[in-house]
Specification:
This protein is mainly α. The protein has a domain of 227 residues. The chain contains 14 helices and 2 strands. A two-stranded antiparallel ribbon has the order 1-2. Helix 1 packs antiparallel against helix 7 and helix 11 crosses helix 12.
Length: 355
Protein backbone atom coordinates (compact mmCIF):
# COMPACT_ATOMS: atom_id res chain seq x y z
CA UNK A 1 0.00 0.00 0.00
CA UNK A 2 2.83 2.34 0.87
CA UNK A 3 4.55 1.47 -2.41
CA UNK A 4 1.33 2.17 -4.33
CA UNK A 5 1.02 5.58 -2.67
CA UNK A 6 4.59 6.36 -3.70
CA UNK A 7 3.75 5.53 -7.32
CA UNK A 8 0.67 7.75 -7.17
CA UNK A 9 2.77 10.65 -5.92
CA UNK A 10 5.32 10.05 -8.66
CA UNK A 11 2.56 9.98 -11.28
CA UNK A 12 1.42 13.39 -10.02
CA UNK A 13 4.77 15.07 -9.48
CA UNK A 14 6.61 13.87 -12.60
CA UNK A 15 4.32 15.64 -15.13
CA UNK A 16 4.43 18.71 -12.93
CA UNK A 17 8.24 18.68 -12.95
CA UNK A 18 8.27 18.26 -16.73
CA UNK A 19 5.88 21.22 -17.09
CA UNK A 20 8.16 23.36 -14.90
CA UNK A 21 11.20 22.49 -17.01
CA UNK A 22 9.48 23.05 -20.37
CA UNK A 23 7.35 26.11 -19.54
CA UNK A 24 9.87 28.83 -20.56
CA UNK A 25 10.51 27.08 -23.90
CA UNK A 26 6.88 26.45 -24.84
CA UNK A 27 5.79 29.90 -23.65
CA UNK A 28 8.76 32.11 -24.60
CA UNK A 29 6.68 35.31 -24.73
CA UNK A 30 5.67 34.81 -21.08
CA UNK A 31 9.09 34.07 -19.59
CA UNK A 32 9.12 37.17 -17.39
CA UNK A 33 5.56 36.51 -16.19
CA UNK A 34 6.42 32.89 -15.40
CA UNK A 35 9.45 34.01 -13.40
CA UNK A 36 7.26 36.45 -11.49
CA UNK A 37 4.81 33.63 -10.79
CA UNK A 38 7.59 31.65 -9.10
CA UNK A 39 8.50 34.73 -7.10
CA UNK A 40 4.91 34.90 -5.83
CA UNK A 41 4.99 31.20 -4.95
CA UNK A 42 8.16 31.68 -2.89
CA UNK A 43 6.72 34.71 -1.10
CA UNK A 44 3.42 32.95 -0.40
CA UNK A 45 5.06 29.78 0.93
CA UNK A 46 7.40 31.72 3.20
CA UNK A 47 4.61 33.95 4.53
CA UNK A 48 2.50 30.89 5.33
CA UNK A 49 5.34 29.43 7.39
CA UNK A 50 4.76 32.06 10.06
CA UNK A 51 1.23 33.25 9.27
CA UNK A 52 -0.44 29.92 8.51
CA UNK A 53 1.60 27.17 10.14
CA UNK A 54 2.70 29.12 13.23
CA UNK A 55 -0.14 31.62 13.61
CA UNK A 56 2.02 34.77 13.56
CA UNK A 57 0.68 37.00 10.81
CA UNK A 58 3.52 39.18 9.57
CA UNK A 59 3.13 42.30 7.45
CA UNK A 60 6.86 42.88 7.29
CA UNK A 61 8.23 40.00 5.21
CA UNK A 62 8.90 42.55 2.48
CA UNK A 63 11.79 43.63 4.74
CA UNK A 64 13.74 40.52 3.71
CA UNK A 65 12.86 40.89 0.04
CA UNK A 66 14.20 44.45 -0.15
CA UNK A 67 17.21 43.70 2.01
CA UNK A 68 18.04 40.71 -0.18
CA UNK A 69 18.00 42.97 -3.24
CA UNK A 70 20.45 45.44 -1.69
CA UNK A 71 22.77 42.82 -0.21
CA UNK A 72 23.04 41.01 -3.56
CA UNK A 73 23.70 44.31 -5.35
CA UNK A 74 26.35 45.50 -2.89
CA UNK A 75 28.23 42.18 -2.98
CA UNK A 76 28.18 42.07 -6.79
CA UNK A 77 29.33 45.67 -7.19
CA UNK A 78 31.90 45.34 -4.42
CA UNK A 79 33.65 42.48 -6.23
CA UNK A 80 34.64 44.78 -9.12
CA UNK A 81 34.30 48.39 -7.93
CA UNK A 82 34.06 50.68 -4.93
CA UNK A 83 30.38 50.71 -3.98
CA UNK A 84 30.32 54.33 -2.80
CA UNK A 85 31.93 55.62 -6.00
CA UNK A 86 29.72 53.43 -8.16
CA UNK A 87 26.46 54.68 -6.61
CA UNK A 88 27.55 58.33 -6.54
CA UNK A 89 28.56 58.45 -10.21
CA UNK A 90 25.02 59.44 -11.37
CA UNK A 91 25.79 57.97 -14.79
CA UNK A 92 29.00 59.99 -15.26
CA UNK A 93 31.41 57.10 -14.82
CA UNK A 94 31.87 53.97 -16.88
CA UNK A 95 31.88 50.87 -14.70
CA UNK A 96 32.36 47.62 -16.57
CA UNK A 97 31.90 44.08 -15.31
CA UNK A 98 33.43 41.03 -16.89
CA UNK A 99 31.32 37.96 -17.45
CA UNK A 100 33.16 36.18 -14.65
CA UNK A 101 32.60 39.09 -12.25
CA UNK A 102 28.89 39.09 -13.11
CA UNK A 103 28.29 35.40 -12.44
CA UNK A 104 30.60 35.20 -9.42
CA UNK A 105 28.90 38.30 -8.03
CA UNK A 106 25.49 36.75 -8.67
CA UNK A 107 26.35 33.49 -6.91
CA UNK A 108 27.98 35.24 -3.94
CA UNK A 109 25.26 37.88 -3.84
CA UNK A 110 22.36 35.42 -3.72
CA UNK A 111 24.01 33.31 -1.03
CA UNK A 112 24.97 36.41 0.94
CA UNK A 113 21.44 37.81 0.61
CA UNK A 114 19.92 34.63 2.03
CA UNK A 115 22.33 34.38 4.95
CA UNK A 116 22.16 38.08 5.81
CA UNK A 117 18.34 38.07 5.77
CA UNK A 118 18.26 34.96 7.99
CA UNK A 119 20.48 36.76 10.50
CA UNK A 120 18.24 39.83 10.28
CA UNK A 121 15.25 37.62 11.08
CA UNK A 122 17.01 36.36 14.20
CA UNK A 123 17.73 39.93 15.31
CA UNK A 124 14.34 41.43 14.48
CA UNK A 125 12.45 38.35 15.67
CA UNK A 126 14.12 38.38 19.09
CA UNK A 127 12.38 41.73 19.60
CA UNK A 128 9.11 41.47 17.67
CA UNK A 129 8.20 37.96 18.82
CA UNK A 130 7.52 39.50 22.20
CA UNK A 131 4.37 40.84 20.51
CA UNK A 132 1.37 38.74 19.57
CA UNK A 133 -1.67 39.00 17.37
CA UNK A 134 -2.19 42.30 15.54
CA UNK A 135 0.64 43.89 17.52
CA UNK A 136 3.13 41.52 15.91
CA UNK A 137 1.74 42.29 12.45
CA UNK A 138 1.92 46.04 13.01
CA UNK A 139 5.36 45.77 14.61
CA UNK A 140 6.85 43.91 11.65
CA UNK A 141 5.22 46.35 9.23
CA UNK A 142 6.76 49.24 11.17
CA UNK A 143 10.21 47.66 10.95
CA UNK A 144 9.88 47.17 7.17
CA UNK A 145 8.76 50.78 6.63
CA UNK A 146 11.54 52.12 8.87
CA UNK A 147 14.25 50.13 7.07
CA UNK A 148 12.91 51.29 3.71
CA UNK A 149 13.14 54.92 4.81
CA UNK A 150 16.64 54.42 6.20
CA UNK A 151 17.87 52.86 2.97
CA UNK A 152 16.28 55.65 0.90
CA UNK A 153 18.41 58.13 2.85
CA UNK A 154 21.62 56.08 2.77
CA UNK A 155 23.73 57.66 0.03
CA UNK A 156 26.33 54.89 0.04
CA UNK A 157 23.77 52.53 -1.58
CA UNK A 158 22.29 55.16 -3.86
CA UNK A 159 19.74 56.77 -1.57
CA UNK A 160 16.34 57.52 -3.04
CA UNK A 161 17.57 57.21 -6.64
CA UNK A 162 18.16 53.50 -6.11
CA UNK A 163 20.94 51.31 -7.38
CA UNK A 164 21.74 49.65 -10.70
CA UNK A 165 23.29 46.30 -11.50
CA UNK A 166 25.09 45.30 -14.70
CA UNK A 167 22.98 43.92 -17.53
CA UNK A 168 23.08 40.19 -18.17
CA UNK A 169 26.25 39.61 -20.27
CA UNK A 170 24.73 37.72 -23.15
CA UNK A 171 21.52 37.20 -25.08
CA UNK A 172 18.67 38.76 -23.12
CA UNK A 173 16.28 35.91 -23.97
CA UNK A 174 18.77 33.45 -22.51
CA UNK A 175 18.95 35.70 -19.46
CA UNK A 176 15.17 35.48 -19.05
CA UNK A 177 15.41 31.68 -19.08
CA UNK A 178 18.17 31.75 -16.46
CA UNK A 179 16.18 34.03 -14.16
CA UNK A 180 13.13 31.80 -14.59
CA UNK A 181 15.08 28.73 -13.54
CA UNK A 182 16.68 30.56 -10.61
CA UNK A 183 13.21 31.44 -9.29
CA UNK A 184 11.87 27.97 -10.11
CA UNK A 185 14.79 26.25 -8.35
CA UNK A 186 14.28 28.43 -5.28
CA UNK A 187 10.54 27.73 -5.19
CA UNK A 188 10.90 24.00 -5.82
CA UNK A 189 13.62 23.63 -3.18
CA UNK A 190 11.49 25.51 -0.67
CA UNK A 191 8.44 23.37 -1.43
CA UNK A 192 10.39 20.12 -1.03
CA UNK A 193 11.90 21.36 2.22
CA UNK A 194 8.52 22.34 3.64
CA UNK A 195 6.91 19.08 2.52
CA UNK A 196 9.46 17.28 4.66
CA UNK A 197 9.66 19.81 7.49
CA UNK A 198 5.91 19.93 8.16
CA UNK A 199 5.88 16.18 8.75
CA UNK A 200 8.60 16.29 11.39
CA UNK A 201 8.58 17.23 15.06
CA UNK A 202 9.43 20.77 13.97
CA UNK A 203 6.17 21.02 12.02
CA UNK A 204 4.19 19.69 14.96
CA UNK A 205 5.88 22.21 17.26
CA UNK A 206 5.02 25.29 15.17
CA UNK A 207 1.45 24.00 14.79
CA UNK A 208 1.27 23.69 18.57
CA UNK A 209 2.39 27.33 18.86
CA UNK A 210 -0.41 28.32 16.49
CA UNK A 211 -3.06 26.32 18.36
CA UNK A 212 -2.14 27.31 21.91
CA UNK A 213 1.23 28.88 22.62
CA UNK A 214 0.77 29.05 26.40
CA UNK A 215 -0.06 25.36 26.59
CA UNK A 216 2.91 24.54 24.34
CA UNK A 217 5.23 26.47 26.66
CA UNK A 218 3.73 24.75 29.69
CA UNK A 219 4.54 21.39 28.11
CA UNK A 220 8.20 22.42 27.85
CA UNK A 221 8.33 23.61 24.25
CA UNK A 222 10.93 26.34 23.68
CA UNK A 223 8.56 28.44 21.59
CA UNK A 224 10.90 31.39 20.92
CA UNK A 225 13.52 29.05 19.49
CA UNK A 226 11.03 27.54 17.05
CA UNK A 227 9.63 30.94 16.09
CA UNK A 228 13.06 32.34 15.33
CA UNK A 229 14.06 29.25 13.35
CA UNK A 230 10.86 29.37 11.29
CA UNK A 231 11.19 33.05 10.46
CA UNK A 232 14.90 32.68 9.67
CA UNK A 233 14.23 29.88 7.18
CA UNK A 234 11.52 32.00 5.56
CA UNK A 235 13.81 35.05 5.48
CA UNK A 236 16.61 33.01 3.87
CA UNK A 237 14.45 32.10 0.89
CA UNK A 238 12.83 35.53 0.62
CA UNK A 239 16.29 37.11 0.64
CA UNK A 240 17.42 34.87 -2.22
CA UNK A 241 14.24 35.70 -4.15
CA UNK A 242 14.93 39.40 -3.60
CA UNK A 243 18.48 38.97 -4.86
CA UNK A 244 17.28 37.27 -8.05
CA UNK A 245 14.79 40.10 -8.58
CA UNK A 246 17.61 42.64 -8.27
CA UNK A 247 19.49 41.03 -11.17
CA UNK A 248 16.31 40.64 -13.18
CA UNK A 249 15.17 44.25 -12.74
CA UNK A 250 18.71 45.70 -13.17
CA UNK A 251 17.68 49.01 -11.56
CA UNK A 252 15.55 49.28 -8.43
CA UNK A 253 14.61 51.92 -5.88
CA UNK A 254 14.14 51.50 -2.14
CA UNK A 255 10.50 52.50 -1.60
CA UNK A 256 8.94 51.94 -5.01
CA UNK A 257 10.58 48.56 -5.69
CA UNK A 258 12.56 47.00 -2.84
CA UNK A 259 10.44 47.79 0.23
CA UNK A 260 7.04 48.11 -1.47
CA UNK A 261 4.87 47.30 1.55
CA UNK A 262 1.68 48.45 -0.19
CA UNK A 263 2.06 46.23 -3.25
CA UNK A 264 4.17 43.10 -2.88
CA UNK A 265 3.87 43.07 0.90
CA UNK A 266 0.08 42.76 0.59
CA UNK A 267 0.12 40.47 -2.46
CA UNK A 268 1.88 37.65 -0.62
CA UNK A 269 -0.77 37.71 2.13
CA UNK A 270 -3.64 37.67 -0.39
CA UNK A 271 -2.08 34.66 -2.16
CA UNK A 272 -2.12 32.65 1.07
CA UNK A 273 -5.64 33.72 2.04
CA UNK A 274 -6.91 32.81 -1.41
CA UNK A 275 -5.25 29.39 -1.48
CA UNK A 276 -5.66 28.48 2.19
CA UNK A 277 -3.59 29.21 5.29
CA UNK A 278 -1.80 26.39 7.04
CA UNK A 279 -1.77 24.03 4.05
CA UNK A 280 1.16 22.98 1.92
CA UNK A 281 -0.46 23.45 -1.48
CA UNK A 282 -2.67 26.39 -0.51
CA UNK A 283 -0.02 29.12 -0.99
CA UNK A 284 0.98 27.60 -4.34
CA UNK A 285 -2.59 27.45 -5.64
CA UNK A 286 -3.31 30.92 -4.29
CA UNK A 287 -0.18 32.37 -5.90
CA UNK A 288 -1.04 30.88 -9.29
CA UNK A 289 -4.64 32.14 -9.22
CA UNK A 290 -3.69 35.55 -7.87
CA UNK A 291 -0.95 36.00 -10.46
CA UNK A 292 -3.38 35.15 -13.26
CA UNK A 293 -5.94 37.54 -11.78
CA UNK A 294 -3.36 40.31 -11.47
CA UNK A 295 -2.03 39.89 -15.00
CA UNK A 296 -5.53 39.97 -16.48
CA UNK A 297 -6.74 42.98 -14.49
CA UNK A 298 -3.49 44.92 -14.87
CA UNK A 299 -3.69 44.45 -18.66
CA UNK A 300 -7.42 44.74 -19.37
CA UNK A 301 -8.80 46.76 -16.46
CA UNK A 302 -6.13 49.44 -16.24
CA UNK A 303 -7.37 52.12 -13.86
CA UNK A 304 -9.74 49.69 -12.15
CA UNK A 305 -7.20 47.03 -11.20
CA UNK A 306 -7.07 48.10 -7.56
CA UNK A 307 -10.86 48.03 -7.34
CA UNK A 308 -10.83 44.50 -8.73
CA UNK A 309 -8.11 43.51 -6.26
CA UNK A 310 -10.08 44.97 -3.37
CA UNK A 311 -13.17 43.06 -4.50
CA UNK A 312 -11.13 39.83 -4.65
CA UNK A 313 -9.90 40.36 -1.09
CA UNK A 314 -13.43 41.04 0.21
CA UNK A 315 -14.91 37.99 -1.53
CA UNK A 316 -12.06 35.78 -0.27
CA UNK A 317 -12.36 36.94 3.35
CA UNK A 318 -16.17 36.82 3.44
CA UNK A 319 -16.94 33.66 1.46
CA UNK A 320 -13.72 31.62 1.44
CA UNK A 321 -12.28 32.08 4.91
CA UNK A 322 -10.48 28.73 4.74
CA UNK A 323 -9.20 29.43 1.24
CA UNK A 324 -9.55 27.04 -1.68
CA UNK A 325 -7.45 24.20 -0.25
CA UNK A 326 -8.84 24.64 3.25
CA UNK A 327 -12.38 24.43 1.91
CA UNK A 328 -11.59 21.33 -0.15
CA UNK A 329 -9.94 19.64 2.83
CA UNK A 330 -13.06 20.25 4.90
CA UNK A 331 -15.60 19.26 2.23
CA UNK A 332 -13.69 16.48 0.43
CA UNK A 333 -11.37 14.83 2.98
CA UNK A 334 -11.10 11.57 0.97
CA UNK A 335 -9.26 13.55 -1.73
CA UNK A 336 -6.49 14.03 0.83
CA UNK A 337 -6.41 10.42 2.01
CA UNK A 338 -8.37 10.96 5.22
CA UNK A 339 -10.85 8.18 6.08
CA UNK A 340 -12.34 6.61 9.18
CA UNK A 341 -11.72 2.94 10.03
CA UNK A 342 -15.00 1.93 8.48
CA UNK A 343 -14.29 3.81 5.27
CA UNK A 344 -16.21 6.92 6.26
CA UNK A 345 -14.39 10.14 5.47
CA UNK A 346 -13.19 12.30 8.32
CA UNK A 347 -12.10 15.93 8.22
CA UNK A 348 -8.32 16.38 8.26
CA UNK A 349 -6.89 17.07 11.69
CA UNK A 350 -3.58 18.58 10.66
CA UNK A 351 -1.98 20.43 7.81
CA UNK A 352 0.32 17.51 7.06
CA UNK A 353 -2.50 15.64 5.36
CA UNK A 354 -2.70 18.36 2.72
CA UNK A 355 0.63 17.18 1.31
Amino acid sequence: MKKLTRYKRLAFHLPLLVAILLAPFFLPEFRTQLATLWLMIVLALTWDMTGGQMGYNSLGNILFYGTGMYVAAVITIGIAHDVGEYTSAFGDGVYEFTEAQYFIGMAAGLLGAGIFCALCALLVGSITFGLRGPYFAIGTLGVAIAVGELVSNWEWVGGGQGISLPVYPGDLEVGKVIFYFLFAATGTSLFVLLNWLYQTRFGAAINAIRDDEEKAEAMGLHTLRYKLATWSIAAFFVGIAGGISAFQLIHFEPLETAYQTINLGIFMVVCVLLGGKGTLWGPVVGAVLFHLFKEITWNYLLGWQWVALGALIVVTVVYFQDGIMGGLMRRKPPWFGVRAEGGEALPPTSVHESA
